[in-house]
């Protein structure tokens, strides 16, 4: 224990300048084995250190202590120590040993999950993410852990605090897949189906050399959310990896069958498909979404009528939409009017429904603000794209590698159709760089163009 006491003395003395902190960092790295060997006796030493001043030393001791199994009696004290540390620690010092900080936070997450109190981990984990990030554009490995706690606690709105950030920097693909998958689930819980579809889309279309289980589960929910929101499942975009294109549908056949039945618009056939695959949907924890898909079929059948008819009786609506009675048709039409999904009036005396055009004139203050926000967002993303494109296009490493493929292209043919070259260059980059650091934007606005340019960084970093 004498060596630990000496180390604690160094921790208490080396903190005044960056040089002293750097010296302390070297000493701590050399003492890792000694700290781990005394892991069960480090608690008294933690109480001697101020985490706000001696952050680096406190972090090494806390990580060594948590490396051993923590008894149930010690759990409460450990959780309090971690929360205090996260709230008071120095951002500059934890970034000297980010892997230690991440390890402590992940053990903290595991402990609150084992105790069945995920709510207690949400605020500290959010603070940990902000201290670990170099900017809000960076996806850390703690993002997915935070979203998981939000899901388990059913505190979905808390997840929006990081889901609404624009992410451009991803260091590990697994973090990206989990972030998008959990983000999709949180948005589903909040009935934000457009955002959920966006997150799931990015999990399904992200670069991968072999199909992974997260992408498979994301695609199952992607199919269901697509049907609920749009009544159809879109085809894969061109930048989808070949592994996903080849294998996703074969691993999700019950969901593909459900989409095919939905496309035919017959509720009886869709119900039969749901009944056939109910056990599979139940085991995937997707039965609730499947029931929403079944309910949305009636809605989309009614919406299609608005494209053909100006007026229609409730009885005709019930017949076409395969509802049980005109009364049920009336209730569904009323609900859709209330939700803003159709624009219509019902004449209860005659039992007729009159369909109208969208009354929005795009001249209210609220709509003006919405349009202005959208324009500003597009300008920011466009500027980001141009900046990255200019920087990467001048990078010697990238130019050297892409130059080796020059003979494969006739650049004259790309003068009139520049996007054609971009697509081919993207395919080349994708094939040559499946495992590097990926820069990926999970927003649908300009997403395909941003992916093309940002994935040049993958090649550059190899």
On the 0-100 scale, what is the average pLDDT? 86
Q: What structural category do the secondary elements indicate? A: mainly alpha
Q: Assign an overall shape.
A: elongated
Instruction: Calculate the terminal CA-CA distance, rounded to whole Å.
Output: 45 Å
Helix content: 55-70%
Using the CA coordinates, give the radius of gyration. 28 Å
Oligomeric nature of the chains: single chain
**Tally of contiguous helical segments:** 26
The biggest sheet amounts to:
3 strands, antiparallel
The fraction of residues in strands falls at under 5%
Low-confidence stretches: 411-450, 456-462
Secondary structure: number of strands: 5
Q: Reading side by side through the largest sheet, how are the strands ordered?
A: 3-5-4
Structure in words:
By secondary structure, the chain is mainly alpha-helical. It contains 26 helices and five strands. It has helices spanning 2-13, 18-30, 32-37, 43-46, 55-67, 72-88, 91-94, 98-114, 119-132, 143-152, 156-163, 173-189, 193-205, 213-230, 242-251, 253-263, 267-276, 278-283, 287-306, 314-320, 326-338, 365-393, 396-403, 418-432, 447-454, 456-461; strands spanning 138-139, 169-170, 311-313, 344-347, 352-355. A three-stranded antiparallel β-sheet has the order 3-5-4. The chain has a two-stranded parallel sheet with strand order 1-2. Strand 4 (344-347) and strand 5 form a beta hairpin. Helix 14 packs parallel to helix 16 (253-263), helix 16 runs antiparallel to helix 17 (267-276) and helix 22 (365-393) packs parallel to helix 25 (447-454). The chain is elongated and about 90 Å long. The two termini are 45 Å apart. Mean pLDDT is 86; it is low at 411-450 and 456-462.
């Amino acid at each position: 224990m004498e060596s630990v006491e000496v180390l604690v003395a160094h921790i208490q003395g080396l903190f005044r300048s960056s040089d002293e902190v750097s010296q302390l960092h070297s000493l701590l790295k050399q003492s890792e084995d000694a700290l781990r060997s005394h892991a069960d006796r480090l608690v008294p030493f933690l109480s001697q250190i101020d985490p706000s001043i001696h952050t680096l030393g406190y972090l090494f001791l806390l990580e060594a202590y948590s490396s051993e199994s923590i008894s149930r009696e010690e759990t409460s004290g450990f959780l309090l120590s971690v929360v205090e540390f996260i709230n008071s620690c120095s951002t500059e010092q934890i970034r000297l040993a980010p892997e230690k900080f991440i390890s402590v936070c992940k053990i903290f997450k595991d402990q609150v999950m084992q105790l069945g109190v995920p709510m207690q981990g949400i605020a500290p984990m959010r603070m940990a993410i902000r201290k670990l990030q170099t900017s809000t554009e960076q996806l850390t490995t703690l993002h997915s852990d935070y979203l998981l706690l939000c899901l388990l606690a059913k505190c979905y709105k808390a997840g929006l605090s990081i889901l609404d950030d624009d992410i451009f920097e991803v260091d590990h693909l697994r973090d990206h897949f989990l972030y998008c998958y959990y983000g999709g689930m949180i948005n589903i819980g909040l009935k934000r189906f457009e955002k959920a579809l966006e997150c799931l889309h990015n999990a399904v279309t992200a670069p991968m050399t072999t199909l992974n289980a997260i992408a498979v589960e994301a695609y199952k929910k992607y199919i269901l959310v697509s049907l609920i929101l749009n009544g159809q499942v879109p085809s894969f975009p061109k930048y989808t990896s070949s592994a996903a294109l080849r294998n996703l549908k074969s691993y999700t056949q019950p969901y593909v069958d459900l989409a095919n039945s939905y496309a035919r618009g017959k509720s009886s056939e869709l119900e039969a498909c749901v009944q056939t695959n109910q056990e599979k949907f139940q085991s995937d924890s997707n039965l609730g979404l499947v029931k929403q898909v079944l309910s949305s079929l009636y809605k989309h059948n009614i919406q299609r009528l608005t494209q053909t008819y100006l007026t229609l009786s409730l009885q005709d609506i019930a017949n076409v939409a395969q509802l049980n009675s005109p009364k049920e048709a009336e209730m569904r039409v009323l609900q859709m009017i209330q939700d803003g999904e159709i624009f219509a009036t019902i004449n209860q005396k005659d039992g007729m429904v009159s369909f109208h055009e969208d009354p929005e004139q795009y001249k209210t203050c609220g709509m003006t603000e919405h349009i202005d926000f959208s324009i500003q967002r597009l300008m920011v993303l466009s500027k980001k794209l141009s900046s990255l494109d200019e920087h990467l296009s001048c990078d010697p490493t990238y130019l050297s590698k892409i130059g080796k493929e020059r003979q494969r292209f006739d650049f004259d043919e790309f003068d009139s159709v520049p996007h054609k070259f971009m697509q081919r260059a993207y395919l080349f980059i994708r094939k040559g760089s499946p495992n590097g650091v990926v820069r990926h934007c999970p927003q649908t606005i300009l997403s395909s163009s941003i992916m093309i340019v940002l994935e040049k960084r993958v090649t550059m970093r190899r």
